[in-house]
Specification:
single chain; Alpha/beta knot; Trp Operon Repressor, Chain A; 2 domains; 5-stranded parallel beta sheet; two-stranded antiparallel ribbon; 8 helices
C-alpha cells in the first residue's frame, strides 16, 4: 500500500509515522508513506497557500490553486483509490472504515489547516471526507496520523501475529475482553482461573462473555448498530 499525505506542516507527521508498527511496515516495504509539503506548490515568490474568506468571515482558507496543482501532480504519478480530506464534518472514523481502506492500494490524504480548504476542492477532487471525532484540531495532521495508523496495522504482514488485529475492539462490534499477563498473582490480585486452565474452548467462551458484558456496560450503542 502507498499513502501520500499533503500537509502544510509535514514535520508534524514524521515522528508518529517513523516508529513502532508503522516503521516495521515501512521497513518490510509493505507500506510506503510520502509526505508532501503543500507550500512547494504555493503561488508567487512568497509561496502563498492561504487567503481570506469571501464574505468577510474570520479565519484563513487554503486556496484552490496550490491544492489542485499538488493533487494533479501526484495523480500524474499514480492513480489513487481514494482522495480523503480529514475534516471534523466528515464521516466518523470507525473500525469498519479502517478495514475497507486497508484493502486499497493507493490513498491520498489531505490535511486541512486554519478554517479548512476551498469548498471547490471538496466538491470536485475529494472522494471521501473522514473525521476522527466531534472536535476541532489545529490542523489535519494528527487526524492523518490516526487514520494511517488504523489502516497500516491491518495490512497483512505488518503485525507479527496477524490474528491480533482480528481480535481488536470494534472488529465484531464488541469491545475487547480484559487481558492479563505474568505474574498470575500480584499483591493479592489474581488472574482469572479460566485463563490458566488450558481449556481453549472455555477460554474463548469466557472472552466472548466478557466482551459482551463490557460492551453492554460501556458502549451499548454498538450492540444496536446491527
Amino acid at each position: 500500500m502507498h499513502i501520500s499525505i499533503i500537509s502544510l506542516l509535514p514535520e508534524l507527521l514524521r515522528s508518529p509515522l517513523e516508529h513502532s508498527i508503522l516503521k516495521r511496515a515501512r521497513d518490510k516495504n509493505i507500506l510506503s508513506i510520502e509526505l508532501i509539503d503543500l507550500r512547494t506548490f504555493g503561488i508567487g515568490a512568497y509561496k502563498q497557500v492561504d487567503d481570506y474568506q469571501y464574505g468577510g468571515a474570520a479565519g484563513m482558507v487554503l486556496m484552490i490553486e496550490p491544492l489542485v496543482n499538488c493533487i494533479e501532480s501526484l495523480k500524474s504519478v499514480r492513480s489513487f483509490d481514494e482522495i480523503i480530506y480529514l475534516s471534523p464534518d466528515g464521516e466518523l472514523l470507525n473500525q469498519s472504515i479502517a478495514n475497507q481502506l486497508s484493502l486499497k492500494d493507493n490513498l491520498l490524504l489531505i490535511c486541512g489547516h486554519y478554517k479548512g480548504i476551498d469548498q471547490r476542492v471538496r466538491d470536485h477532487w475529494i472522494s471521501r471526507e473522514i473525521s476522527i471525532g466531534d472536535y476541532v484540531l489545529s490542523g489535519g495532521e494528527l487526524a492523518a496520523c490516526v487514520l494511517t495508523d488504523a489502516i497500516g496495522r491491518l495490512i497483512p504482514g505488518v503485525l507479527n501475529d496477524e490474528t491480533s488485529a482480528l481480535t481488536d475492539s470494534f472488529q465484531d462490534q464488541l469491545l475487547a475482553p480484559p487481558v492479563y499477563t505474568r505474574p498470575a498473582e500480584y499483591g493479592g490480585f489474581q488472574v482469572p482461573e479460566i485463563l490458566l486452565s488450558g481449556h481453549q474452548a472455555q477460554i474463548e467462551n469466557w472472552r466472548m462473555e466478557q466482551s459482551l458484558q463490557r460492551t453492554l456496560e460501556r458502549r451499548p450503542d454498538l450492540l444496536k448498530e446491527e
